[in-house]
Amino acid sequence: MTETLAPAAGAYAARPVAGFAASLPGATAVFRLHKIDVCCGGQAPLAEAVAAPGADLGAVEEELAALVPGGAMAPEATEELIALIETRYHATHRRELPELEHMQKEEQVLFPLMRRGGHPMIGHPIGMMRHEHDSHGAQLRTLDALTTGGVPPAGACNTWRALYAGTRKLTDDLMEHIHPENNALFPRFGA
What we know:
- The protein is built from eight helices and no strands.
- The protein has 191 residues and is mainly alpha-helical.
- The N and C termini lie far apart (44 Å).
- The relative contact order is 0.13.
């Protein structure tokens, strides 16, 4: 079941939990957090599934709506672009993959240099980030091949479908993350 989810408040209550798990990457993490049964109770409407553990329907709907992807143009101001990268991408990846080190290098070394207007040696950390981005891209292409483009096998269970949806979300998020850095931010510093 593939649905297009719109981030409208209150619109999710009647939709089956399994539909979110299969079509909205990150939904299973929201369900686990609120102790909502996505496997055996996957066909239950969200309102019913949320009520079982005593979770707050409004809060769960807000968290699900926050997962719906939405593209935006890169801000013109460097400070705003860095803030967008940190809040939209780094926060998401840190929540989903807390052991990431790449973002710490950007936040502790590169971004402070950029916020101060640059540095004569800024090309070195930018070059390192570009190299890591290229490596991430190669790894994402391998993941895409292993998961047949994020399309689960016919008859896959909800857990399997959620895994594939999660790999699609990871790939999409990382590619969206890398794009503004490589193509909007780094060129502002001659790299």
